[in-house]
Design brief:
AhpD-like, mainly alpha, Peroxidase-related enzyme, Single alpha-helices involved in coiled-coils or other helix-helix interfaces
Length: 197
């Protein structure tokens, strides 16, 4: 961390149902990751503060998250659109607010995240992206109803096999994240609310 970089601030109210550790209490590798993210964002995302409660889970969660956003055939805007559509259906406050900010930034659209959160079918997106959202939301609401027909819908919309895999993986991972955020009552940072507006 450079001299000008803010020190990570693990807020006590990052999650309301489990304690948040002090920065000095977490293992060195996690402090390094917190330092990097705080320097990049200008604040410490509460999800990271919350996950620091259990270091092995922090490492696994962040490694999976990083793989989803760094090693994907989807563009980042599409990844964040899936996250917000899924999180909207799951009523996940943290992800709706935090990833809503990312949708606004990556899509360069101040309205899209709100459309996706309230009802993805109202979103001003292409037919291809609507197919992507339909399948992601179906996997969220009715996972046992997903069939090869849903994958075929994505192929017909123009998605490659790798993109179809990534759509399913992003939706599945953020369903997990939404459930933990609700269970532990993760709270979005104030900074997220105004980003990309």
């Amino acid at each position: 961390m450079s001299e000008e970089s803010p020190r990570p601030d693990l807020l006590d109210d990052a999650q309301r149902r489990f304690p948040v550790p002090d920065y000095d209490e977490v293992p060195e590798d996690i402090r390094e990751r917190l330092d990097e993210e705080t320097e990049r964002a200008g604040f410490t995302p509460n999800v990271m503060s919350a996950l620091a409660y259990k270091p092995s889970h922090f490492r696994a969660f962040m490694a999976f998250h990083d793989a989803l956003v760094d090693d994907t055939t989807l563009d980042r805007e599409e990844v964040e659109m899936i996250v917000v559509a899924v999180s909207g259906r799951n009523n996940c406050l943290y992800c709706n607010v935090a990833h809503g900010a990312l949708v606004r930034i990556y899509a360069k659209d101040p309205h899209l995240a709100d459309q996706l959160v309230s009802n993805h079918r109202t979103a001003d997106v292409s037919d291809e992206r609507m197919a992507m959202l339909e399948v992601a939301v179906k996997l969220t609401e009715e996972p046992d109803a997903v069939t090869t027909d849903d994958l075929d819908l994505l192929y017909e919309a123009g998605y490659s096999e790798d993109e179809v895999w990534d759509i399913g993986m992003v939706a599945a991972f953020f369903n997990l994240s939404n459930r933990m955020a609700t269970f532990a009552d993760w709270r979005p940072n104030e900074e997220f609310y105004g980003m990309g507006r």
